[in-house]
Design brief:
This protein is of the alpha/beta class. The chain has 9 helices and 5 strands. It has a single domain, classed as 3-Layer(aba) Sandwich (Rossmann fold), CATH 3.40.50.300. The chain has a 5-stranded parallel sheet with strand order 2-3-1-4-5, sandwiched between helices.
Length: 194
């Protein structure tokens, strides 16, 4: 029996997380996937914006602190829900692909999975060039109910979060790649499991 796999794909808004996740799930045979956005939506039904404001704002929206601190606030409010999804897959011994902006790249999530007998890979996606990142955001098929301007007006904040994620990912030994410049990102992910 093969070891259960955990694949975590993170990155700031508009870098291609959902696209790579769909391709990786299909190509690498991940039957279970979870999005931090889905976890957030489920939690929003339980807590209103007055109770947990960070749950009801975008990862890049200002909460009055620094950009990275504001993003960390949106990650923290989801951390128990994200951990529960990962823990359940680990206990069941099933593969899991977890995707979303609400994950701070660190070694712990991967090491915990490995410690339970699985294999794990963390990926931080980014787009190096600012104009290309903006074009990625403009071309996205879907935006939340706030519209395209919400993203473009916050592009500097999105890119600052990206810089922090890339730094964290490199420090933690995650696979860090510019998805816009890779010919075979799924192949790179697959090689990381070997």
């Amino acid at each position: 029996m093969s070891k259960p796999r955990l694949l975590v794909i993170t990155g700031s808004s508009g870098v291609g997380k959902s696209t790579l996740s769909a391709r990786a799930a299909a190509s690498l045979g991940f039957s279970k996937s979870a999005s931090t956005d889905t976890i957030r939506e489920a939690l929003r039904t339980q807590f209103d914006a007055d109770e947990l404001p960070a749950l009801h704002r975008s990862s890049f929206e200002s909460a009055g602190s620094g950009v990275v601190e504001d993003w960390h606030g949106t990650v923290k409010v989801l951390s128990e829900g994200v951990a529960a999804v990962v823990r359940r897959a680990s206990m069941k011994g099933s593969d899991l692909l977890l995707e979303g902006v609400h994950v701070i790249p660190d070694a712990q999530i991967l090491n915990d999975w490995r410690g339970a007998g699985g294999i794990a890979c963390g990926v931080v996606l980014y787009v190096e060039e600012g104009d290309r990142h903006q074009r990625f955001i403009v071309r996205r098929e879907r935006h939340n109910n706030r519209g395209l301007a919400h993203y473009l007006d916050n592009l500097d904040r999105i890119r600052e979060i990206q810089r922090e994620m890339v730094s964290n990912g490199r420090e933690a030994g995650w696979l860090v790649m510019d998805a816009s410049a890779q010919d075979d990102p799924v192949g790179m992910v697959e090689a990381s499991f070997e």
